[in-house]
Amino acid sequence: MSHVFVYAATRTPFGRYSGALAGTRPDDLATVALEGVLGMAPGLDRARVDEVVWGSANGAGEDNRNVGRMAVLLAGLPVTVPATTVNRLCGSSLDAAMIGSRQIETGDADVVVTGGVESMSRAPWVLPKPGRPYPAGDVTAVSTALGWRLVNPRMPQEWTVSLGEANEQLADALAISRERQDEFAVDSHQRAARAWAEGFYDDLITPVPDVELARDEGIRDGTTGEKLAGLTPAFRPDGSITAGNASPLSDGASAVLLGSEAAAGQLGVEPLARIAGRGTAATEPQRFGIAPVDAAERALERAGIGWDQVAAVELNEAFAVQSLACLDAWKVDPEIVNTKGGAIAIGHPLGASGGRVLGTLTHRLRESGDRWGVAAICIGVGQGLAVVIENTGTIR
User: Fold this and answer.
1) Catalytic site includes residue 378
2) Distance between terminal CA atoms of the chain?
3) What's 4-122+248-390's CATH class?
4) In the chain, what are the domain boundaries?
């Protein structure tokens, strides 16, 4: 089996729902990220890209079903470059990287571009087709931006609660207080603002043409615990989850360039990190927030290391409560988790977030010189993914 390496990673700035990127189609956002990451490999003949694997949680509108292939065509890559789109909801682009890494490991490919995109602002409303012609009653348009829709009535009701209610249940079960959640959210904003100010993201961002968005739109530099404490609970009158301690609806795209060891000569750059382990896990749909716990344990086992060797964790912050639940279960030092901010501040465009955490983790390890890191993400309907990477600068 061949080793698999991360050679480059980039993403667009993430925009808020109905914000700066709302006027940009998702296939165009995907094209920006795809072109951006290919531009980081100056030696690459684009005809030598073996596969593009792209993530998207929607696909119902301008994503046009296979947004990966659309991005390949819009970016002007040779029409001989194949592309597919995968949908594992919030984990789609991390799943894309896992799929691409397996293709390289087995020798089916040398160079694979992976990534993902979501425009939650532009996600369409859908109408179910009527069961008979000329129905007399009204029909309701359903938003495809987030969550369950057109639910099969055979699904148990406890599985199909809203994402917010599912995490309220998690807060109750694990006694995770509103105060802890708000404190976690404040850290997310402060760390993200500091990372941008210090230039960490400068080499990780590809700007979107004709859009004035210099950094992630959701970051609130002045966020405090007092301000968050004044927000009204979003899902229960007496609940703990608010708009301030959960990730916002967002728009954006990410991309990661993967290759074999031999691909370095084609790409004109040295690898940044090695994909050392992968893990998937599943649980009851309403407990999706803690699914990364088992996914990360499996990825670490496959990498042959333990938590005591991990120096950096990038965990997508869908909700503060589920992030805290994972950290408590892993018993890791919170100071090594999301040191450059997380999705509560940065944003969570569903199909793009997995590529974001993987790219951020890679650059964190290069910055610090540490060896091992974990990227993990929770996924609606009860799943989690995790990837362990090794900083190639530490490999002797």
Assistant:
1) yes
2) 19
3) alpha beta
4) 4-122+248-390
